[in-house]
């Protein structure tokens, strides 16, 4: 099967459950309160956080959506994106990647992940700038430098850490 060839996400549920052995997992269906958005045959897998902080959610629908705290990412129903999803799950759960959410005042600017085992402020700011630049959102970089920003970084199993960037 080619990397961009379509797959059926529902066919990958058992494989995902096998790869998530260790943490407690609850599988939700559309007949449960709060999960009515799921269509028949779709599921939301909730991975219980063993420490402080948010649980991780994986929606298996026509595509895959991985959510952790205020961050989420969508993965297409292809072999390549499924491989990326499994890689991201592994990195998050093994604390080799953390999520980043950026606010200026009370306004959400962006969310992304950083593949590092610890938060280093200079590297973090470079990752945010690169992410915003690649999304053609340089105006937000200027806004962050002018107004300052609140940056929320979260590793699996820990409480969110806040990094503040002061404006000019």
Note the total helix count.
4
Strand order of the largest sheet: 1-2-3-4-5
Low-confidence stretches: none
Strand content: 25-35%
Secondary-structure class: alpha+beta
Describe this structure in words.
This protein is of the alpha+beta class. It folds into two domains: 9-93, no CATH class; 98-166, no CATH class. 27% of the residues lie in helices and 31% in strands. The protein contains four helices and nine strands; from the N terminus they run H-E-E-E-E-E-H-E-E-H-H-E-E. The chain has helices at residues 13-19, 79-93, 121-134, 138-147, and strands at residues 25-28, 43-47, 56-60, 64-68, 71-75, 98-104, 107-114, 148-154, 161-166. It has a five-stranded antiparallel beta sheet with strand order 1-2-3-4-5, covered by helices on one side. It is globular and about 50 Å long. The model has no long low-confidence stretch (mean pLDDT 91).
Could you give a short description of this structure?
The chain is α+β, with helices and mostly antiparallel strands and 168 residues long.
